[in-house]
């Protein structure tokens, strides 16, 4: 317990120092060191009820604080692109990303209005200078914050050049055939999903 | 006459009894070996057996340490890679450990197997404390337990509050799909009869959410020898919506445009459930990682202890053996000199 006490004290001080230095904090996330008052009220309540146990850490303690919304428009967009098994891009500065939102393809440039978007299977393109990196994402969410940060979370994603076009064609043909020969509802639904995914893959490869 | 005989006997015993006083802490072994009839047949068999068993225990603990170390390496990379997953959600929805809601569900994450130091009792202790913190007259706090060990500890005094428990999570390596299944199972909390059925339609699940705040308690992996008890809070979509309105905790959420889905609440529903599965996925991995680390250090110290014990036993064994040899020699020599004289 004591072993952690020093680190705890130190981290708390650094948080409050960071908060004190910047403009008055807005309670919400575009500025991520959320109001320190919130955290301390938890700690206080904890100390009152359970005085002999250290309060548990909360996720905020493990996060890099995000910068506040800058007054002038930044030239770059900071992208975090995460998967359950990897952080594909973390804090990378790019020019533009195009995300496959359920409402259609969405291009995101620095200074984009704060948005929460659901993703559908499709192509995520990351533009950096003349380089374009394309991923095929299955589904997920994208959060665009007012401070030109974009967080993209996908359940599964692969770089598009790792997809084998011949296998996609084969799979598409297979599932189309299955769909036409399906008898039960379950089979039909499964085949439909297969066709949807493969045609999305196909259009990603050709388009 | 009798006294003289006794004194003589006493002198004969003396060299044998002497080593016992040196190894006083271990002396519980020795008296059993003393044959009531004749000290001469003092048996070293008991010490030898004990040495053998200590040696075997040491072998086992060493092997467990090795296994834990190799498993740790695998799960550590996974846990570290999954750390990015929950961060966007915390960035968007903030961190609200102090939120005051009616229905709390505590998700306590523990391991299925023991022999891993204090990680399970830490998470149980934390859960009990959080339970205490969130209990009140019109509030309801329930446990959902992941892992065998926390269940064994919590079932004793808070059996009525246990809503669901899930075990055998670690038999197959965890992947994200499992986390999603787990989420569905947890979301079904109140329909416990159907808890096992994941095939229940998604719409059904969404309508039957029975929590206001989920609090995931787990041990975050820090290093092989240290872990940090952590609590992540996931709010229900209704609470998020309420807090996002003016004056709430999540006031800024209204400034976000929401794309996709028919209504805002639908998107929030998807969002919070996705958040929960992400948080849970990371939590389970972090806890597994801490478990392996804790087991490694626990097994390391127990093999060291076994080694020390073995050293002490070897010393006792050798002393006893040496003492009996010396006695026999003295007896032979004194017998021979008595004949000569």
What gap, in angstroms, lies between the N and C termini of chain A? 58 Å
Can you tell me the number of structural domains of chain A? 3
Quaternary status = heterodimer
Fourth-level CATH superfamily of the largest domain in chain A: F0F1 ATP synthase delta/epsilon subunit, N-terminal
General form of chain A: extended
CATH C-level name of the largest domain in chain A: Mainly Beta
Strand order of the largest sheet of chain A: 2-1-9-8-5
Protein chain pair with the most extensive contact, residues per chain:
A-B, 56 and 56 residues
Number of strands of chain B: 6
Q: Mind describing the biggest β-sheet of chain A?
A: 5 strands, mixed
Overall CATH class of the domain at 79-296 in chain B: Alpha Beta
Brief rundown of the structure:
The complex is a heterodimer of chains A (207) and B (341). Chain A has helices spanning 2-21, 36-49, 165-181, 185-206, and strands spanning 77-83, 86-94, 96-101, 104-108, 115-119, 122-128, 131-137, 140-144, 149-154, 157-159.
């Amino acid at each position: 317990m004591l072993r952690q006490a020093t680190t705890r004290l130190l981290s708390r001080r650094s948080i409050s120092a960071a908060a004190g230095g910047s403009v008055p904090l807005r309670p919400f996330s575009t500025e991520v060191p959320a109001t320190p008052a919130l955290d301390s009220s938890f700690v206080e309540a904890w100390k009152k009820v359970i005085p002999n146990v250290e309060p548990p850490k909360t996720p905020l303690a493990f996060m890099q604080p995000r910068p506040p919304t800058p007054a002038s428009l930044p030239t770059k967009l900071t992208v975090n692109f995460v998967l359950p098994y990897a952080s594909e891009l973390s804090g990378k500065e790019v020019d533009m990303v195009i995300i496959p939102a359920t409402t259609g393809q969405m291009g995101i440039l620095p200074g984009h209005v704060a948005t929460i978007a659901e993703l559908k299977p499709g192509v995520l393109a990351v533009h950096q200078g003349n380089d374009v990196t394309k991923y095929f994402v299955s589904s997920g969410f994208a959060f665009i914050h007012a401070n030109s940060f974009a967080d993209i979370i996908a359940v599964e994603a692969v770089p598009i050049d790792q997809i084998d076009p011949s296998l996609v064609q084969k799979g598409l043909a297979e599932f189309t055939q299955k769909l036409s020969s399906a008898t039960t509802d379950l089979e039909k639904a499964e085949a439909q999903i297969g066709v949807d995914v493969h045609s999305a893959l196909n259009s990603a490869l050709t388009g | 006459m009798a006294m003289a005989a006794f004194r003589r006997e006493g002198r004969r015993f003396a060299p044998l009894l002497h080593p016992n006083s040196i190894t006083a802490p271990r002396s519980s072994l020795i008296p059993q070996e003393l044959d009531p009839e004749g000290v001469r047949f003092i048996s070293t068999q008991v010490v030898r057996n004990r040495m053998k068993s200590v040696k075997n225990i040491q072998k086992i603990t060493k092997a467990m340490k090795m296994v834990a170390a190799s498993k740790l390496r695998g799960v550590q990379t996974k846990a570290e890679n999954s750390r990015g997953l929950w961060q966007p959600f915390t960035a968007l929805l903030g961190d609200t450990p102090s939120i005051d809601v009616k229905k709390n569900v505590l998700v306590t994450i523990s391991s299925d197997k023991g022999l891993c130091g204090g990680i399970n009792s830490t998470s149980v202790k934390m859960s009990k404390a959080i339970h205490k913190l969130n209990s009140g007259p019109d509030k309801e706090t329930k446990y959902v337990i992941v892992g065998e060990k926390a269940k064994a500890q919590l079932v004793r005094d808070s059996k009525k509050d246990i809503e669901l428990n899930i075990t055998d999570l670690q038999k197959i390596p965890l992947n994200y799909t499992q986390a999603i299944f787990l989420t569905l199972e947890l979301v079904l909390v109140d329909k416990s009869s159907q808890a096992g059925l994941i095939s229940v339609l998604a719409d059904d699940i969404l309508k039957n959410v029975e929590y206001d705040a989920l609090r995931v308690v787990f041990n975050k992996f820090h290093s092989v020898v240290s872990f940090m008890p952590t609590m992540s809070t996931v709010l229900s979509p209704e609470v998020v919506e309420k807090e996002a309105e003016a004056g709430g905790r999540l006031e800024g959420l209204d400034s976000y445009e929401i794309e996709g889905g028919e209504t805002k609440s639908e998107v929030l529903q998807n969002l919070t459930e996705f958040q929960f599965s992400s948080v849970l996925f990371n939590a389970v991995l972090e806890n597994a990682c801490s478990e392996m680390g804790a087991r490694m250090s626990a097994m390391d110290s127990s093999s060291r202890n076994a080694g020390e014990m073995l050293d002490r036993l070897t010393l006792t064994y050798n002393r006893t053996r040496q003492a009996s040899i010396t006695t026999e020699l003295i007896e032979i020599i004194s017998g021979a000199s008595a004949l000569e004289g």
